[in-house]
Design a protein that fits this description.
CATH class: Mainly Alpha
Structural class: mainly alpha
Number of domains: 1
Number of helices: 4
Radius of gyration: 12 Å
Helix content: 40-55%
């Protein structure tokens, strides 16, 4: 995978000590699935970022890039 999607995937971390090893954003306790749930509840990026200022737009795009890779059947490798 090349381009911006690769950069976004660099924001996804998996650490057994954080959120039971679930994929998270930048080592924080923000699991990808929680952010995807917010987007699925029809919250806009602006609403999510306003409610959670520790997050960045690129974090939300990283969640979407991660989900895209998973449904494509490709292997995802993330830094610890």
């Amino acid at each position: 995978m090349k381009g911006k999607a690769t950069t976004y995937l660099d924001r996804i971390t998996i650490n057994p000590e954080i959120c039971h090893g679930k994929p998270c954003i930048r080592g924080m306790r923000w699991p990808v699935e929680v952010l995807l749930d917010m987007m699925l509840s029809e919250m806009t990026f602006e609403e999510i970022l306003e409610d959670h200022p520790e997050l960045e737009k690129a974090d939300l795009l990283a969640c979407l890039a991660y989900a895209k890779v998973l449904v494509s059947g490709k292997t995802v490798t993330t830094p610890a």
